[in-house]
Amino acid sequence: MSDEALARIDQLLQVQQQHHLDLAALLEEYRQMVFEADTQGDEAVFKTASMMPGGKYHVLTTHLRETWLVLQADLVRLFPDVAPPPKPKSTD
Questions:
Q1: What is the DSSP string of 3-70?
Q2: Is the pTM of this model over 0.85?
Q3: 19: Cβ–Cβ under 8 A, 6 or more apart, which residues?
Q4: What SS3 class is residue 88?
């Protein structure tokens, strides 16, 4: 496996890690908003908190999903002889 390929996988994993950290910080921010809205009775804060998860949350989760798909595709290219993991069963 080339150093270039490993560097790409490492970069994608770092991106995933950063997205998760950003998402955790965002959720903490939302928690604080809900607490402040409840304790202060501030209608503007309550309206903001009630519109959660909001645009930032959707953007981050979309980036997580898309980066993971790229990472999976790169891993399949790097390890073509290894069978991909089974898809999760539907709960429907």
A1: HHHHHHHHHHHHHHHHHHHHHHHHHHHHHHHHHHHHHH--HHHHHHHHTTTHHHHHHHHHHHHHHHHH
A2: no
A3: 60, 63, 64, 67
A4: coil
pLDDT digit string (tens) for the chain, length 92 residues? 688 888 999 999 999 999 999 999 988 988 887 787 777 777 777 776 667 667 788 888 899 999 999 999 988 888 888 766 677 777 76
Tokens 């790229």 correspond to: 70
Lookup: tokens for 69: 């798909």
C-beta separation of 34 from 54 below 8 A:
no
The structure tokens listed for 56 are 């930032």
Question: Could you tell me which residues come within 8 angstroms of residue 20 by beta carbon, excluding any fewer than 6 positions away?
Answer: 64
- Please return the burial class of 49, using the count of CB atoms within 10 Å of its CB with bins 0-12, 13-18 and 19+: buried
